[in-house]
Write a structure and sequence with these properties.
The protein is mainly beta. The protein is built from no helices and 9 strands. The strands form 2 sheets. Strands 2, 4, 5, 7, 8 and 9 form a 6-stranded mixed β-sheet that branches. The chain has a 3-stranded antiparallel β-sheet with strand order 1-3-6, with no helix packed on it. β7 and β8 form a beta hairpin. The radius of gyration is 23 Å and the shape is rod-shaped.
Length: 111
């Protein structure tokens, strides 16, 4: 009976590190761009990236940047072959901003 030694080299798939290009508390009808920093300049051949909001796959979000326009917790997942790694999380919230109250004053408004 013979045996052979097989050497297996396991590469490391770097986890994406995501950050926001601005405040993550955004106004309604606006957004904040999230970036997988270590993949923004180029996504290596054979790698794929997808974004998730609250754990749910975002349809069509397969680039190293994604503009979040809704509240939620966002992650990016990179896959190469059978290896998959997921990023840190970023939470985006919707804020209504300050409220403004306008009241007329007594007197002639037109001057």
């Amino acid at each position: 009976e013979q045996s052979q030694t097989v050497q297996v080299n396991l590469g490391t798939l770097p986890a994406p590190v995501i950050s926001a290009n601005g405040p993550t508390a955004i106004c309604p009808n606006s957004g904040v761009t999230l970036s997988a920093q270590n993949y923004v300049s180029s996504l290596p051949s054979g790698y794929t990236i997808v974004w998730r909001q609250n754990g749910n796959l975002i349809s069509g979000a397969n680039q190293p940047t994604y503009t979040a326009t809704a509240a939620g917790t966002y992650t990016a997942t990179v896959t190469s072959g059978n290896c998959t790694v997921t990023s840190n999380t970023i939470t985006v919230t919707i804020t209504n901003g300050p409220s403004v109250s306008v009241s007329p004053t007594a007197g002639n408004v037109c001057g």
